[in-house]
Amino acid sequence: MAPQYAPSLRSRLAPLLLFLQTAFIIIYAFFVEVDSNVKVDGETFSNFYAEFQDVNVIVILGFGFLCTFLVRYGFSGSGFNLLVAVMATQWAIILNGIESWYYRGKIRVNLRSLVVAEMCTASVLISMGTMLGKTNPVHLIIIALLEVSGFIVNEWVLQTLLKVRPLNSIMLLHIFGAFFGLMLTWILYRKGSEQRFEKEKFDSKTGLFSMLGSVFLWMFWPTFNSVLVDDRTPGRKLGAVCSTYLALAVSAVTAAAIALLSHPKGKLNLIHMQSCILAGGVAVGVSMSAVHQPWEAMTIGFSAAIISTIGFQYLKIHMLLAFQCHDTCATLSTHGLPGLLGWLSHLLLQIRDSDDHTMAIRFAVFHICTLLITITISLSTGFVTGLLLKWNFWRPPQSKKCFDDQAFWEFPHNAVRK
């Protein structure tokens, strides 16, 4: 018989969702309008819509299927991903449009603003990987609202104080999401996590669905990295697409090789592979504005795959035992470490291409400050969010009910017939 968790969801999740959605509708009714401009930064609607759909596939299908690898958490992994994504995107559109509202009295919505909002949402979906199976949907909605707020504040600080380009600040979403999630999982650590949870396992069917999510992400990641690239410089967007594809290709090959070498019997691990084949795309996305040659992207992809694969193999268990961070999806290895590598690559490539030593030193200082500010805001926002979620009012699932769909979903075939 399924656990009797319906009262918890009915009395907390439903009112929260209805309140938030009603509030969003009212805000959109009075302050939001569709931008009537035919072109978006020189691109026609028909051209940009395809890229918008690619990002949509990444956010909904890619991350959704990626979270289905747990044998008894497939409904929640994909279903809650959709719920969080659409709520966070609506909230991100509002927060990103505050400046427009202040100066023009209206928040302008177009395809570009939708894409930016979905990329802000991606940082939330990255953080969800650290807490997958250990929270309820009320927790996830609160995480989404607070993390999107923190991420947009981080963007504003970087762009206002350090004059960081919007694309560079947005692509730090991998670092922001990974460290936000690590702080959350540290604050919300469950005793006994050192012993693997009973239902924290996968089988061939769930592994296949999860690999499908990785394939979606792998296929559409070039669009994710290039969609906001300014194409007024001839060939810049094409270069971003080619660099991302080459980095992804190299990281897939390298991840397979390192996985074979690190396995005692020389076999591939599906969950291991699906997490590490994306490392090149993550790293080259963070360093995109400094990558100009194919070999540079391939080298970054090669290095990212090595770091990610070794991190997945050894770092996850050490983070759990040494720091009490139970990272369900090894988000640190998949997004955090490749993101940091991309940041370092950007720094080194920019210094190499600089002819003026004074400007190179100044750029290095500002670049280091960018990382420190991002990690600081990420960890502090995650800390506040974690303290809020420790409140028992939200009724977190019991440890024995973690990683179990039956706590939240109806299963007719399990119903007791009278």
Automatic annotation (TrEMBL):
The chain crosses the membrane at residues 12-31, 55-75, 82-103, 138-158, 170-188, 208-224, 244-263, 270-291, 297-317, 329-349, 361-389. It comes from the Eukaryota. It is a multi-pass membrane protein. Residues 22-390 form the Ammonium transporter AmtB-like domain. It is found in: Membrane. Keywords: Membrane, Transmembrane, Transmembrane helix. Its main location: membrane. One of its GO terms (biological process) is ammonium homeostasis. One of its GO terms (molecular function) is ammonium channel activity. The keyword Transmembrane applies. InterPro entries: Ammonium/urea_transptr (IPR029020), NH4_transpt_AmtB-like_dom (IPR024041), RhesusRHD (IPR002229). GO terms for cellular component: plasma membrane. Pfam families: Ammonium_transp. Functions as an ammonia transporter. May play a role in the elimination of ammonia in the gill. Belongs to the ammonium transporter (TC 2.A.49) family. Rh subfamily. This is Ammonium transporter AmtB-like domain-containing protein. It comes from Amphiprion ocellaris. The lineage of its organism: Eukaryota, Metazoa, Chordata, Craniata, Vertebrata.
